[in-house]
Design brief:
Layout: E1 4-7, H1 12-18, H2 27-36, E2 49-51, H3 55-70, E3 81-83, E4 95-98, H4 103-111, H5 122-131, H6 135-144, E5 150-152, H7 155-165, E6 168-171, E7 181-184, H8 190-203, E8 206-210, E9 214-224, E10 230-236, E11 238-241, E12 244-250, H9 253-260, H10 266-283, E13 288-297, E14 301-308, H11 313-319, E15 329-334, E16 340-345
Parallel strand pairs: 1-2, 1-4, 2-3
Antiparallel strand pairs: 5-8, 6-7, 6-8, 9-10, 9-13, 11-12, 12-15, 13-14, 15-16
């Protein structure tokens, strides 16, 4: 019987940056996983298994969320089984579907007795890490030309780009949820220069982009199949606070496109989508869900912010979005020591 093990590991991006076996995510990532580890059940199939920290909490919270979703769309609550790490060696899976694959996750599963044949080999994990580097977005931009990005290996190169553009955004090659990003101008203080030196020392380079006049953030969700075909899944209209994700608008694709049409050309958006599918299909080895974060700029222009080679909260939103154009909801994550995923009226 085909049975998939699903895992929510939101510390994935930071695990890629550290690239060690015994990686311990920071407190916020651990709290997020402990609170929302049940969410893969939203896209799991009947009979699948979801790895959680507390079975009773996961079942109770998932059932409550399913009841909220059922109020505004047809919904079948998947009949999944929640298990804890101590049970891993007792289950037979046919595949593993995590939020994102990284060296630390593979090591943890191996240590808990998961069949080695179900885990990616070291060279596959290394390719995932390399392709998750922000230079993948830079290479895509070089083909499409809607915005610019530069990979810098020295402080002098960074200073040259600040001189050229006046204001820029510096990004660590591997980072997540607003972390690893700094806004720079010609008044670089010692603290920021220290961050740049530290990033260059530990990650090798720093990505630099011009600071654009942004009017809206949004995302696009995809899936790359083993044969190289990239499937476009839909738009993600999300909210952030200080760069950190807080929630998604839950509406149909028609409504999302109508909202975006106020800020950008949909013809330009569709052309970018097609070009991104073609390029990433031909130039990646990664297989699985991924997202591209975009910006709508002044003058109805598009810019690419980042590519996330993992599942995203946009994929979560697509799994529970309304099927009726007249229904609008917001998927909101309440932050704190305990994170709560809630759906409310817009």
């Amino acid at each position: 019987m085909d049975k998939t093990l699903h895992i929510f590991n939101p510390g994935h991006d930071l695990a890629l940056a550290t690239d060690i076996d015994n990686f311990t995510p920071p407190h916020a990532a651990r709290a997020l996983r402990a609170s929302l580890d049940y969410i893969p059940a939203l896209w799991a199939k009947d009979g699948d298994v979801v790895l959680v920290g507390d079975i009773a909490h996961a079942r109770r919270t998932f059932t409550r969320l399913s009841q909220q979703v059922a109020k505004y769309r047809r919904w079948h609550e998947p009949e999944v089984e929640f298990i804890e790490e101590r049970q891993l060696r007792d289950y037979a899976f046919t595949r593993i579907n995590p939020w994102g694959w990284d060296r630390a996750l593979a090591y943890s599963l191996r240590r808990h007795g998961v069949d080695e044949g179900l885990l990616p080999k070291a060279e596959v994990l290394q390719r995932v890490r390399e392709e998750s580097h922000r230079r993948t977005a830079m290479h895509l931009l070089a083909q499409i030309g809607i915005s610019e990005a530069f990979e810098c290996s020295t402080l002098n190169t960074i200073h040259d780009l600040i001189y050229k553009y006046n204001k820029v955004v510096a990004k660590a090659p591997w980072s997540s949820s607003g972390r690893g990003i700094r806004f720079l101008d010609d008044t670089l203080d010692e603290h920021t220069q220290g961050w740049l030196r530290n990033t260059l020392r530990h990650q090798g380079t720093v990505m630099i982009e011009p600071l654009y006049n942004k009017v809206m953030d949004f995302g696009m969700e995809f899936y790359r199949h083993p044969d190289g075909k990239v499937e476009y899944l839909g738009l993600s209209l999300f909210q952030t606070v200080n760069g950190a994700y807080t929630g998604n608008l839950l509406v149909t694709e028609t409504v999302k496109r109508d909202i975006l049409s106020r800020y950008i050309s949909l013809d330009d958006l569709d052309a970018f989508t097609s070009a991104a599918c073609d390029y990433l299909g031909a130039n990646l080895s990664y297989t699985g869900p991924f997202g591209i974060d975009m910006m709508a700029l002044e003058g109805r222009r598009l810019a690419l912010a980042e590519i996330n080679l993992r599942r995203t909260m946009g994929h979560v939103a697509l799994a529970i979005s309304p099927l009726d154009d007249d229904i609008r909801r917001v998927m909101h994550i309440e932050t704190g020591n305990i994170y709560k995923l809630k759906i409310r009226m817009r």
